[in-house]
Amino acid sequence: GRDVTTNDLTNDFIQAHVPDIKDGEDRIVMKISGLLVKLLCELAPKTYAPYVVLENGKKVLYLLVLRAIYGMLQAALIWYNRFREDLEEHGFVFNAYDGCVANKVVDGQQQTIRFHVDDIMSSHKDPEVNDAFHIWLNEQYGEIGEVKATRGKIHEYLGMTLDFSTPGELVVDMSDYIDRMVEDFSVGLTKKHVAKTPAAPNPFDESEGDDLKDERKEEFQTFTAEGFFACKRARPDIHTAVAVLCTRVREPKESDWEKLIRLMKYLNAMRRDKMRIRADDM
Predict the structure, then answer these.
(1) 3-state secondary structure 91-138
(2) Which of 7, 149, 152, 234 has the greatest CB tally within 10 Å of its CB?
(3) 161/155 Cα distance (integer angstroms)
(4) Which residues contact 218 (CB under 8 A, 6 or more apart)?
(5) Phi and psi angles of residue 259, each rounded to the nearest 5 degrees, phi first
(6) Cβ contact 182:169 at 8 Å
(7) 7, 4, 15, 150: which is closest to 83 by C-alpha?
C-alpha cells in the first residue's frame, strides 16, 4: 500500500572522496601512460607536466587517487560509506541484518530505502515524502548529473520487474532477464534446444573431462553468477542446479559445461511461460 519510487544516480563514485591516508597506510596510485599522458599535460600543463617520467622511453604519470574511480577495487566501498553516512545524517537508521536497507519514520509512517550501489528504491504511504527524498538526492548528488526518478506501480529494478499493481501483492518478474541470458549464451539455442528440468538425473556427479579454457571458463563463471542472481529472486526452480554450478566455478571442466548447457536449455524452454512468483511465496 505504499507509494514507490526508484532513483538512479549518475557519476556516483566520482563524488566520493578517498579517505585521508594515515602514516603507514597504503595509498591508491594510478599509473597512466600513452596518449592520455599527452592529453592531461595539454589540458593542465602546470598540474601534470612537472611529474611526467620516462620508462623505457615512454612518458608515464603516477597519480595519487583522491576520489573513487569506477573499476577501482575500493570504489564501491568508498561510495557506500559516503552514502550511508549521508542517509544516517538525514535521519535514517540502518537495518541490523541488511546493510543496504534503512528506515525512517516520517509523519508517523515508515519510509524504507533499499539500494544497490547507485540504484535506490524508496517507499512511503505519502507520495510527497518520496518527492522530498528525490529532491534531497538531487541536492546531495545531482551537481554532475540529474538524479532520475521513476514513479508508478511497475518498476524495472536490478534485473527485476517489480509489479505493485494488485493491492496487497508484489509480483517479481524476471522474464526479460532470462530472455537476455538465453540470447547472450554463446551456444546458440533455438526452439529445439529445450530440457524439461534444470539438471540431469545425476547433478552431483564429480567433474570430468578437460579443464575449460579462457573464454569458455569466463562464460561459465558469468552465467553461473547470473543464474545465482535469478534463483535468489524469482526463479527458485533453478536453485539446486545453480548451487551445483557454483561449486565448480574455480576449475570448471567439460562435464560442468554440459551441466550449464542443460540449465540454459531449461531456461530456453521456460522463458515464454513468464514464470512469476509473489513475494509472500518466496
Answers:
(1) CCEECCCCCCEEEEEECCEEEEEEEECCEEEEEECCHHHHHHHHHHHH
(2) 234
(3) 6
(4) none
(5) -65, -40
(6) no
(7) 15
Question: H-type helices in the chain, by residue range?
Answer: 35-43, 45-48, 75-89, 127-141, 175-184, 214-231, 239-246, 254-270
Q: 10-64: per-residue pLDDT in tens?
A: 888 888 898 888 888 888 899 999 999 999 999 999 999 999 999 998 999 999 9
Residue 68's identity, in one-letter code, is: A
User: Which triple of cell numbers denotes residue 263?
Assistant: 540449465
Sheet architecture: strand order including 276-278: 154-157, 160-163, 171-173, 276-278
CA proximity to 257, closest of 201, 229, 215, 228: 215
Cα maximum dimension of the chain? 68
Q: Which three cell numbers stand for residue 215?
A: 573464454
Q: What are 85-122's pLDDT values in tens digits?
A: 999 999 999 999 999 999 999 999 999 999 998 899 99
Under 8 Å between Cβ of 174 and 234: yes
**What is the C-alpha to C-alpha distance for residues 181 and 226, in angstroms, rounded to an integer?**
8
Q: Are 226 and 158 in contact (CB under 8 A)?
A: no
Measure the N-to-C terminal CA separation of the chain; round to a whole number of Å: 19
Q: Is residue 214 within 8 Å of residue 220, measured between CB atoms?
A: no
Measure the CA–CA gap between 96 and 280, rounded to whole angstroms: 22
* Of 207, 166, 155, 111, residue with least CA distance to 7: 155
> 136 and 86 in contact (C-beta within 8 Å)?
no
Buried b (16+ CB within 10 A) or exposed e, 5-40: bbbbbeebbebbebeeeeeeeeebeeebeeeebeeb
> Residues with Cβ < 8 Å from 159, sequence gap 6 or more?
174, 177, 229, 230, 233
Query: Using alpha carbons only, what angle is made at residue 100 by residues 97 and 103, rounded to the nearest 5 degrees?
Result: 80
